[in-house]
Structures are given as C-alpha cells and as structure tokens.
Amino acid sequence: MTTVITTWNKPEDAALVAGAVARQEGCGAVVDLVIVDNASKPEHRARLLELVSPDAVVANRSSDPRKPDFARTPDRNARNGRVASITVVLNQENMGGCGGFNTGMRYAAARHRPDYVWLLDDDIDLPNVALARLLESAEDRPDAALFGSRTVDKRDRATTIETTIFLRLSDGLMGPDPDDSDPRADAHRVWRRSDRMTGLRDVDVVSACSMLARWPAVERVGFWDDRFFLYCDDADWCVRTARAGYGVVLNLDAVVYHTPWFEKLTPTRSYYAQRNQIWLIANGVGSPRLLVARRLLALLRDAVVSVRARDRDRSAMLLRAAEDAARGRGGKLVDLPSQERKALLAAFVRASLFGMLAIAAPSRLKGNV
Q1: Is the pTM of this model over 0.70?
Q2: Which residue, of 88, 132, 186, 223, is most buried by count of CB atoms within 10 Å of its CB?
C-alpha cells in the first residue's frame, strides 16, 4: 500500500508523521511512503530531506495538478520494516492540500499500483494501531471504499472533536447528524444516546486527515477535484465515491490526533470553505439547483450584514467566494477585492449576476475530474 503525506513549510511535523507511520503495528501491511512537498521555502524543503532521508527525491516539473511531470533522482537501497520506501515529491508550486494529495496519488498510480492508499495530514499524530484498525474496517466492509478515523484533540487526548459527518439534504451543509428523513437517522439517534465510541458507522464524509481508500475504487471514481485547493475537497470525493455505489465508513476505534479545524480558520481559509461548499452541493446533494441558489443567497445576505457591521474584510471575502464559485474559478486565491464601498458594490453585482447564470446553467459549477 501507499501512504501519502502532504506538507507545506512544516518539515518537523511531516517527519513526525512519517515516524508515526513507521511505528504502525498489528497489521501485515508494508508501506511505500510518499511525502509531497508543496513548494515549501528552500530552507524548509532542505530540512525535510535531512529529517526523513528519502530513498528517492522526485521533482514534479509541471504546474498543472492534473498532468504531473515526474523526474526522479536515482533510488537508494530500499529499507526493511513497516516502511519499504520513502519518496519525497517536490512540487514546483503550492497546489494546496487537494493538489498535494492528487500529486501523491498520481505518483502512486505511476510507480506503485497499490491496493490501498492512506492519506494523512502533516499536523497529526497516530496511535500505533491506527492503520491496523482502518484495514480491519476494509476487511469487515468489502462494499465500502473510504474509511476514516475518529478525530481526537492533539493537545487534549481525552477529548473527541469529530466523529460522524453527514451532508444534510435540507441545506447542503455538513454536520454530525443526518436529516430526520435520512434512513440512517433512527439508528444514528440510538447510537448518539449510547455514547459508544467504538465500532463502525456509515457516514457521508470522512476526513482526509487520516483516510484509507481502496485503490480500485480510486481508479473508478477518479482523483480529487483540483479546483478546490483547500477545504471540502475530501468531502466532495466522499460524495462522488458514494454516488459510484461504494460505502463510506467511519471507524471509531481508528483514532487520529489532530488540531481542531476551527482553530486554523483564517479569512483566506474561510474563503475556500465558502466557495467550495457550493461546488460540493452542485456535485449531487438533494436538489442541487435549489440548494445552490439558497447558498449563494445566504452568502450575499451575509455580505450585506457584514458591511452594515463595518466588517468590510469579511464582506469582501464572502462576495469573492460567491462570485468565484458561480464562475467556476478554482485553485489558489490570488487576492481579495478592495474593501472600498464602490468596490464592494461592484463585487456584489458581479456575484449576483454570475450566481443567477450558474443557477440557470448548473453545468457551470461542475469540475473535470
């Protein structure tokens, strides 16, 4: 199997995750570890290579995340133990978590042809049995393709911060509970009352901070939608995988220690979350056209409220997210519009216009994956 870690300017953190992978026990899996460096600063990149001592260093000479161009240095001798090889792939530009994982999976497709791929963030820690628990999930549920972990606070390891994630058909937003109309709702309520943090749960979304995927399903469904760059990209992959007929399963016993997502939010990260949520809805949640219309309207309404509250930075971010989502303009955010009143008014008009066009022609919201 192949494990992919995506990192950006966090060499020590990435090395710690690589070490946690090497310490996995209780399973027979042998791992080819691929660490994708997302155009870190030269000093951080050099430090990463020093810390992990890779068997191969591969330059990705392409800036197109859909068409990598891998040029590798000569391999060193492969190693023994849980990790059979370590490869560091050097992206020439930051492609976000989405493009980073896609680069790693495309490298795995070209070099390793794995039976599973295990995706990991660079700011996590893992119990030594995390991989064993995920592989047990795959054995127990041959109908499923994606298997996720229960997320526990990295600094307070007695506190669970994320378990089940559902995509609600009523509003297209994600939450810990399904809609009442969901056929899983009754069983979910029984489980909630039991407060049992063990066993498998059928969900809509599992987080790519620690996600195991069956490779044949990856080949059938395709890789991540490169437009997303950051946020909701793993959720979109889960939705597309379920639409292809596979189960998505959370293993409550497969713990991962992670920093709570809300502690990492910035205006730029919020932009990605707001923009990408609309594409997630458009890819097949309930009645996409109605839900997209509601979501765009909510962004415009919140932008007006933000202006009235004299928070023009937030208003600018919301308007740009709405416009870019409606235009289908993905990838990395280059800049935000001016916060001047006239500029915000023009942004509001553009966001409204392109929003109406997108609702009239929903194909504008679809990506190519």
Answers
A1: yes
A2: 88
